[in-house]
Write a structure and sequence with these properties.
The protein is α/β, with parallel strands linked by helices and 320 residues long. Helices cover 49% and strands 15% of the residues. It comes from Actinophytocola oryzae.
Length: 320
């Protein structure tokens, strides 16, 4: 397995009702956080994309990535996820090419088909066609930048469905799995992706996973988990459809999903956090994105970044 790379996320530039912030300040803090992450020894930072919601989100993560890349010299910058089928592939290919020209092999392009009808309706794309558009867009990107993208493995495909695993594995691309998977579930997706790669005569890509992570004392653990749950209840309720219905209309299913977020979060002191992340690493994750940014103040998440770098990062990498 490849040496583990440890990144930080997920910068979405959201100004929420629970924590409203001026958007210019959020983008400035993103650059500052990227510089800090590099200085602390992390491998990457990751940016999100969504559209047409009150909290703003980041509509063009490749542009935000350019800002982070320009402020750093070693740090990788990833998208988690760039909603590729919603975009004009000619524009995306041009932007990726410019990032490669200016910053070399420091872009981790994470792509996903997305899940909101409203986003597809707004850009005039039928949601039913999103899988086919994704396949065509990925093939165009690899064709346009053959020999310039370091390898297809620097393209991460997000999701857990069998079609997603096949899409990534058959092209030698990497996976970026969501934050609610157990180590056993992660290992199953890794095995499936490797099988698809072998069947296509390709080397398997990396296996990434996003993890809600927070270092805290035992007395504060329950409070941190409640904050994580509150964050995801708003996000899931507003954005997801559960069994075909808006999530806020299915409180029973929303409660079940929120409990998965609570249980899957890796929260505690250094030893507990290290144990949780090591379990995922040993299950096959070689790219781990520690989600420390959701609904935390600037001072809070930067303090946790520093503590993770000191207490967890060397041991997780096996360099302590």
């Amino acid at each position: 397995m490849s040496p583990v790379q440890v990144g930080l996320g997920l910068w979405a530039m959201r100004s929420t009702a629970r924590r409203p912030r001026p958007w210019p300040a959020l983008y400035e803090e993103l650059r500052e956080d990227a510089v800090l992450a590099e200085s602390l020894g992390f491998d990457s930072v990751w940016l999100a994309e969504h559209h047409f919601w009150y909290d703003g989100w980041c509509p063009q993560p490749l542009l935000a990535a350019a800002s982070c890349l320009g402020a750093t010299s070693r740090l990788r910058v990833g998208t988690a996820m760039h909603l590729l089928p919603q975009h004009d592939i000619g524009v995306v290919s041009r932007d990726v090419g410019q990032l490669l020209d200016h910053f070399g092999d420091r872009l981790d392009l994470g792509v996903s088909i997305g899940y909101r009808d409203e986003e597809y309706d707004a850009v005039g794309v039928e949601r039913a066609r999103r899988g086919r558009r994704m396949d065509g867009h990925l093939d165009r990107l690899l064709g346009d930048h053959a020999g310039r993208l370091a390898s297809p493995a620097r393209v991460f495909v997000g999701g857990i469905a069998p079609a997603v695993i096949e899409r990534a594995g058959s092209r030698g691309m990497s996976l970026l799995l969501p934050n609610t998977l157990t180590a056993v579930e992660l290992a199953k997706r890794r095995t499936a992706a490797q099988a698809s790669a072998v069947a296509a005569g390709r080397a398997a890509g990396r296996v990434g996973v996003m993890v809600d992570t927070w270092l805290t004392s035992g007395a504060d653990e329950a409070e941190v988990r409640e904050r994580i749950v509150a964050h995801y209840r708003e996000y899931t309720g507003a954005w997801f459809r559960l069994r075909g219905e808006p999530a806020f209309d299915r409180p029973d299913l929303l409660d079940r999903q929120s409990e998965r977020n609570r249980v899957s979060a890796v929260v505690g002191d250094g030893e507990r956090v290290l144990a949780g992340l090591t379990e995922l690493r040993d299950a096959g994750a070689d790219t781990i994105v520690l989600q420390v940014h959701a609904d935390a103040s600037v001072g809070e998440h930067r303090a946790v970044m520093a503590r993770l770098a000191e207490d967890v990062l060397p041991k997780l990498r096996g360099t302590a």
